[in-house]
Design the sequence.
């Protein structure tokens, strides 16, 4: 239905550059602290970041980067990457954040698929590019994100030095205004099956996402927030932190490549970080580090945790040991990525502890702008009763409606994004992912939720991490196998672990076996590689003579 | 400049109805408390408000209201008016909020200009409509916002009862999706000079405005906020409170027609209001009421104050007597209306008291999305130095670019909205209105800022209210005349008042005379009618023999 009568309002477009423009005006001295690849801790602020982004924009012009050109970054979370976020999108080009943890062939594939004109690369990722550069015909040059002093030897052609490139450029730039639907950035999913698929974000989507992100429904960022994104700027835009922090005037602490406990803690302690962003395993890493050192007192008030389900054991540990609120969020590359959360509202904090912890293992509720439904196998929306499960589908202004240069619309049924997640939604709107479609265990024709089992195992006092995967079974097709990493120096046997599950799950959900391992394989974004585990243990039960 | 490459994001439109949809899902039991025209206090919540809005939407369909039709409301702040806000815009029609304090001829003019199809009217405003109804050819019927029991006698044709109209309608409604640029509501300026001019808001503008409003840069609304808009829903949408409160999940307290101290305090005390919205005179009214009763303890944490300059005397009184933060805002009907503010950030609260109070008399800084410049008489942008003054002009996605059905673009120079306010902006972006163009006093060719004088006079211990206007002078063309309302039962003479100004303003700014009055004439929105004062006192100095 369409009316003819429009409001008489200016058609000011929502552009990404305006976020930094706002920060440099309102919070010029708010800090941006980075652990640089050169090894030091670097301090700057939004005013300087703006100035350097202007310089970078001039440099991009000089390189001949035009609107519609893709420019790649292969970089950790640092102030220079932040400058790329604003300058590249600001001039109207598209920042393609390349995940350097992909296999070399995948990196080659996506750079060619995106037709990147330049690659801005951090110290440490040059070897990967050297390996594939001969197969990158669209790339005109490589810019190392460092100064002259730290420029490495490299066989890459047309190698430039970032600091030299921008050094003599003017400090102001006349940023173009264009339509908000214009592409701003591009990120490829890791492509665990098939080739990686690109998600191309518009300026409108990123600005609306940033506004949602700072709101109390999602990350609740403010000028007094000190934000540490332990999620990378090369994957799903570090959950939008580079856009949201300037809008909120939050202090931004960028961990560079320091994803280990000691590096993380150094920043948290020194910079007084009060809000962290990361996948569950990052907070497990931090916990393991702090526990070993008997540290319980931290400046952290909240950790915002997504990318994988929140295990109740971690929720409780963070609450009771550290007095840190574990704030679950759900999202994916295709959703810019934030879509749901469970912020610590007075109502939530007033709940009995155990009830609250349970809620904190859900993914929370949809932010304003995001619509969620669960669809069964016949494409029929099921009830929001906390029981009926099916594929989670989402809609909204920052949600992908097609992969980049890709005609396969099978992930986009009827105007929705099909997430590939199996989920339930309860009557109050709380959503819980019970499994990924591809991780679902089908035993004798019935589903078993690996996440639910993992959640309960995570509560076992000797368990540090675990994963449940479906492996071949002669009678039931698939049966669950439980893989467990114990706490360092602690012990437990199969019986101890399985009896812990008794009475908490349906009996037939009980894993057929427990395998103790020293670590779980992870993706570049810190998620357990279940497909790898499945492959490795596929015949485990058969070989054991199940 | 335009690129060709759009992001691959869903084109979900930003529609007003989604705000209430969000609230009924996330905060179904959050309260909406209204002082009804029937005299009682009425309690409802967002779930019920949603249900009744659905019913109202069906009723509008039954009345034949289509997209592009204008529907008028003449109503105070109550839950029924809230339902109109959502249902009328929700079906795609345009809610025209008529200011019932306009003169009858003006009401007639704007209803005809808008071509309103129906008028929803509160008890108390029927007489006005009866007077003009014969001249309202487009109006097909009048709906009284009450139940059968309270239906008044009236000569209005086609008189309907609101509660009857919606009573038997279904509880759900299939809200149409349409373009976000579509008109949602319409509000006419009071038209102190010439005919009133309509500002027609789009859905996009109202949703973006709501998101800005809840953010920490403007009103900082949250689920724990209890919001009392003492600004009317018939003028500038009660500063957007009806849209922002549901988005934030805030409790909404609607004062009906009770704009006096006792009614206000009853709601503040009983409902535990922590944030109030209103013009300075409203907070003066509250202060006078509380002072008389020696009340200093209130649940209020902040009063957000705009529509007129914030007098420093009030800022200080609210801080020191009540421990309430006086949060200045600036906006106008043409800006939806909120554009700037000074929220109590840690940085602001850490300032020395006197410096903070001074800042609180500015209008604060522009919210994200709003651009401000000061232009001199030659249309040249002047420096942001806190000294250079000129016309304030603004741009942004919720700012008017043309009056409704009006070809006169003189208020919209070069894509800006010319506000008619004379202002300065300092290097940190703090904006201060020094006068209205039409209120400026021109003495011997030089400007005198009436607001600056009023600000200082407001500090005099015996002064309750004051206004400075320019009146005729034989030698200097115009000279300032100061009108003063003293505190009840207190005394002061001209000499006492003028000597209080000494050393605080340039000597030639000193008013030529002080006239003590028992009250100042106010507009329906609580602003001092300076034009009326000017007319009344035009020859005051000449008659006194200046
Ligand atoms: N709160 C959560 N609970 C459970 N799972 C979650 C949660 N948040 C995110 N996820 C999982 O992470 C997925 C999105 O992750 P992301 O887009 O980062 O890449 P990926 O899907 O892990 O890998 P790929 O690149 O192969 O698509 C979701 O589809 C979901 O399966
Ligand atoms: N913080 C403030 N300081 C000084 N003046 C302010 C402030 N906020 C608003 N105003 C004044 O209020 C005006 C906007 O008010 P509004 O749109 O409600 O109607 P109006 O301009 O008073 O009347 P009309 O309907 O005739 O235009 C601004 O143009 C400005 O003059
Ligand atoms: Mg995925
Ligand atoms: Mg005006």
Sequence:
């Amino acid at each position: 239905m369409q009316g003819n009568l429009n409001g008489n309002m200016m058609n000011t477009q929502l552009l990404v550059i305006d976020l930094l423009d706002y920060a440099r005006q309102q919070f010029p001295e708010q800090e941006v602290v980075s652990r640089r690849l050169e090894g030091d801790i670097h301090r700057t602020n939004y005013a300087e970041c703006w100035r350097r982004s202007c310089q970078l924009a001039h440099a991009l012009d000089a390189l001949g980067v035009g609107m519609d050109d893709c420019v790649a970054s292969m970089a950790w979370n640092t102030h220079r990457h932040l400058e790329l976020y604003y300058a590249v999108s600001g001039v109207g080009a598209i920042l393609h954040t390349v995940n350097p943890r992909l296999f070399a062939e995948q990196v080659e594939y996506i750079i060619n698929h995106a037709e990147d004109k330049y690659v801005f690369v951090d110290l440490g990722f040059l070897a990967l590019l050297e390996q594939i550069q001969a197969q990158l015909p669209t790339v005109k040059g490589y810019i190392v994100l460092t100064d002259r002093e730290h420029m490495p030897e490299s066989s890459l052609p047309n190698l430039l030095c970032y600091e030299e490139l921008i050094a003599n450029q003017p400090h102001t730039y006349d940023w173009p205004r264009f339509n908000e639907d214009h592409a701003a950035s591009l990120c490829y999913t890791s492509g665990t099956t098939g080739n990686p698929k690109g998600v191309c974000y518009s300026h409108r989507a990123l600005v609306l996402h940033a506004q949602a992100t700072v709101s109390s429904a999602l990350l609740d960022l403010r000028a007094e927030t000190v934000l540490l994104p332990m999620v990378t700027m090369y994957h799903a835009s570090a959950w939008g932190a580079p856009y949201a922090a300037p809008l909120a005037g939050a202090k931004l602490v960028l961990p560079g490549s320091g994803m280990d406990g000691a590096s993380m803690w150094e920043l948290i302690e020194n910079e007084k970080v009060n809000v962290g962003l990361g996948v569950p395993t990052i907070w497990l890493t931090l916990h393991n580090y702090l526990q070993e050192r008997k540290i319980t007192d931290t400046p952290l008030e909240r950790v915002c945790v997504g990318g994988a389900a929140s295990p109740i054991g971690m929720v409780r540990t963070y609450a009771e040991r550290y007095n840190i609120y574990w704030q679950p969020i759900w999202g994916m590359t295709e959703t810019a990525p934030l879509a749901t959360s469970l912020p610590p509202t007075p109502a939530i904090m007033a709940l009995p502890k155990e009830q609250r912890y349970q809620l904190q293992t859900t993914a929370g509720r949809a932010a304003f702008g995001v619509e969620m439904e669960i669809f069964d196998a016949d494409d029929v929306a099921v009830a929001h009763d906390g029981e009926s499960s099916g594929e989670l589908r989402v809609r909204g202004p920052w949600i992908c409606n097609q992969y980049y240069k890709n005609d396969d619309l099978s992930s986009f049924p009827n105007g929705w994004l099909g997430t590939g997640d199996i989920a339930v939604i309860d009557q109050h709107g709380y959503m819980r992912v019970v499994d990924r479609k591809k991780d679902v265990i089908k035993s004798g024709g019935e589903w078993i939720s690996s996440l639910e089992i993992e959640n309960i195992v995570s509560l076992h006092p000797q368990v540090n991490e675990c994963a449940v995967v479906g492996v071949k079974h002669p009678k039931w097709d698939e049966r669950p196998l439980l893989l467990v990493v114990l706490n360092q120096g602690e012990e437990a046997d199969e019986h101890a672990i399985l009896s812990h599950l008794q009475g908490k799950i349906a009996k037939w959900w009980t894993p057929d076996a427990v395998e103790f391992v020293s670590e779980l394989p992870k993706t570049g974004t810190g998620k357990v590689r279940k497909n790898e585990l499945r492959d490795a243990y596929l015949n485990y039960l058969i070989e054991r003579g199940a």
